[in-house]
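A quick aside before the break. I want you to see a complete sequence-to-structure record at least once, exactly as it would be stored in a machine-readable document. Don't worry about memorizing anything.
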Amino acid sequence: MKKFIKLFWVFVIGCLLGYIMEVVFNFVRTGEFETRQGLIFGPFAPVYGIGTLAFYLILPKMRNSLQVFVTSSILGGVTEYLCSYFQEKMFGTVSWDYSNQFLNFNGRTSILYCIVWGILGVVFIKIVYPYFEKFFNKFLYRIGTRVITIFAVVFMVFNISISSLAAQREYERRENIEANGEIDEFLDEYFPDKVLDKVYRNRINR
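That is the input. The structure line, written in tokens, reads:
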């Protein structure tokens, strides 16, 4: 139970930090504020949550910064590639396309972003990880935190589920597949294309 609680919050915090980083980076690059969330409800970017989980599980075992950098580059690149691949196969969309970058891999990741992941890994292990451990040791296993965790898990499971269902139904609408049952009708009414386009502004249909 303690292990699950810790890993869950690593994922959630990673989602939040990744979202903030994406928004700030886009604002610096374009001068415009644009949401970069990956779920319907809340400022969460799951690809960063998954990447942070991988960092947390693997990087503390590394002995030097070069090893951390190389490992993080590989972990981040693989995570980014797989997330993009499965998003396209399941929902017919992608949230990033690096086809115009030097040494990209099917547009899903590139050498440049692998380097960025490597830098993030070093920052994580040198700065973020110690704060994670202090937080976990001080607050995470208190009874109140466990109660909050239960509600947070229920919310995240619902959020991920409804986001996946809505994206899948959107794909079906593009393929002119009629609603089949009450769930499809609910998704068509409350999560039509215009709503999802507003939530996921950086998506590309494939």
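Two observations worth writing down. The longest helix spans residues 143-174. The helical segments are 2-30, 46-58, 65-91, 111-140, 143-174, 182-190, 193-199. We'll return to this after the break.
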